[in-house]
């Protein structure tokens, strides 16, 4: 079976798994299938899903980004510094947060391409640096946005009249559409797939691989900055100690959605499905009172199954 068909089949299986999990918990608990809980699941998908969108670009190139979680916390802190401490307007502070996220991605890209560090090591180092800087800049204390009217509405407000539907979900949906267009319809997307499929052949064809890999990490950084805005607006504060662990769930969402860890294959639609699977699974297990330790065991098994499916697909290609 052709590799493209196998990839679409894995994506369809991921979607079927999402439907099956949703139906199972709908019967398992009467509190699962209601508007409030469904909205809560979508809301909980936003941060992990946004980080996963950026991670998709990196993983399609055959790289990895372990800094997305602590980078998000650092961006949130920088947003607090710009808006609360420097007194910038909210829109300008948000723009500054996104640009700072791009800077985090730029540093990652330079470390990978110029210093030629393995992506795992380069982003692991950034993960630690971002974690430390977030604590240093904030003085190890949260920065509250309580005096900044409108900032919380970015995440928890609703632009839909008469509906208690958070803006963060709409922003995530728009970010996913934009990410899908960039990955599938632009030169950056074509080069991203090409680099992941065969970096050496891409370079021999005259493409500046170094430049485009840096751009890919910058794009990932923009999504990190956006996640920093969304989580701090949701919490009403920039929490410097948050972030650890988010990178694992973001990468898990990408892998569950069918993106190959070896690069060259993947999609934004699959990543969104993967993020939804994690959120629905976590929510359903909590509602059915499954202990936290078993929730982690089950999620780990799902990740193993997704990676096994990816390996099987590549071995048959």
UniProtKB/TrEMBL annotation:
It is found in: Cell membrane. GO terms for cellular component: plasma membrane. Coiled coil: none annotated. GO terms for molecular function: transmembrane transporter activity. It holds the Pfam family BPD_transp_2. InterPro entries: ABC_transp_permease. It is a multi-pass membrane protein. The chain crosses the membrane at residues 12-29, 41-59, 90-108, 120-145, 165-183, 214-235. Keywords: Cell membrane, Membrane, Transmembrane, Transmembrane helix. PANTHER family: ABC TRANSPORTER PERMEASE PROTEIN YPHD-RELATED-RELATED, RIBOSE IMPORT PERMEASE PROTEIN RBSC. This is Ribose ABC transporter permease. It comes from Streptomyces nanshensis.
């Amino acid at each position: 079976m052709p590799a493209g068909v196998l990839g679409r089949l894995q994506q369809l299986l991921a979607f079927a798994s999402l439907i099956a999990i949703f139906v199972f918990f709908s019967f398992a608990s009467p509190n699962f299938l209601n508007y409030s809980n469904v909205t809560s699941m979508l809301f909980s998908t936003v941060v992990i899903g946004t980080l996963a969108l950026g991670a998709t670009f990196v993983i399609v190139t055959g790289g990895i980004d372990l800094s997305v979680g602590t980078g998000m916390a650092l961006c949130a802190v920088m947003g607090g510094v710009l808006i609360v401490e420097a007194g910038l307007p909210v829109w300008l502070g948000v723009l500054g947060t996104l640009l700072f996220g791009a800077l985090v991605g730029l540093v990652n890209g330079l470390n990978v391409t110029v210093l030629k560090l393995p992506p795992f090591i380069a982003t692991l180092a950034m993960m630690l640096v971002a974690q430390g800087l977030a604590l240093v800049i904030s003085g190890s204390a949260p920065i509250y946005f309580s005096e900044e009217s409108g900032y919380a509405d970015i995440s928890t407000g609703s632009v839909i009249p008469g509906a208690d539907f958070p803006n963060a979900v709409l922003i995530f949906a728009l970010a996913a559409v934009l990410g899908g267009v960039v990955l599938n319809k632009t030169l950056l997307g074509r080069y991203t797939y090409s680099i992941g499929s065969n970096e050496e052949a891409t370079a021999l064809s005259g493409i500046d691989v170094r430049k485009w890999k840096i751009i890919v990490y910058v794009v990932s950084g923009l999504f990190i900055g956006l996640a920093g805005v969304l989580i701090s607006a949701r919490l009403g504060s920039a929490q410097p100690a948050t972030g650890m662990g988010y990178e694992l769930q973001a990468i898990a969402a990408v892998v569950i959605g069918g993106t190959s860890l070896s690069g060259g294959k993947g999609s934004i639609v699959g990543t969104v499905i993967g993020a939804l699977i994690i959120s629905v699974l976590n929510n359903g297990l909590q509602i059915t009172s499954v202990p936290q330790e078993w929730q982690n065991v089950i999620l780990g098994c799902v990740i193993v199954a997704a990676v096994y499916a990816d390996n099987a697909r590549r071995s048959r290609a």
